[in-house]
Amino acid sequence: MYIRKSIKGNLMRIKIILVEDDDNIRELLEMNLKQAGFSVQSYFSAEKLLSTLVQKEAHAYLLDIHLPGINGIELAKKIHEKYPKAAILFLTAMQKDTYLPQALQTGAIDYIEKPFDIDLLIAKLKNLIQVLYALPTTSFQIGNIKIYLDTGMLVKGKEKIKLSMREKNILQALLKNPGQIVSRKDLMISAASEQEKISSRYLDNIIANLRQYFNDKENKLIVTYPKEGYAFEGKIKEIK
Length: 240
Hints:
By secondary structure, the protein is α/β, with parallel strands linked by helices. It is built from 8 helices and 13 strands.
């Protein structure tokens, strides 16, 4: 039996360090990240962070590429020298930033272009942290149904169902947080792309599809919590 709890309540243990020289962007980002439940420390320059880096380990670092002085690329290298497991996400103001290939060679996992949707940024941060700090399990069994998230395949006996990308992303968000209420907003972000968001009704349709795949006629596996979200409350077995 799982104890339900809000995902947001877990985020205060997740520490983000933000380095951005634009005061308005830095303050806005810090405010929104804190509202999302992250613990945040922000700096206006690489030099300011580096002066205390030994005491400033974080789960993820959000770095502007084009910082004055020591730029974001050099800063990322120094962070990875000290903390090889750190998740790094770059901010760039240019759609075709010629520094991006070099930036991603530092060990950074992702980037986002300015101006950006704050919800998309938060979703990317959550995904980065999950990839680096959560268990790497991508295969699960629920009853007689096997789920392979890496390929998006759901197997019921001899029947194979190929999940859509959005179905897979929503199912993954639920399975990675068993027994916890995942908010409608977080699920919609999980299913959205950078080009297109999904509606609340579209989310409900995806949940209906997933319930049909699991033959969950009484909604006991994927449980609805009105005005909150959904929780997966079935017994989940990891496939090694």
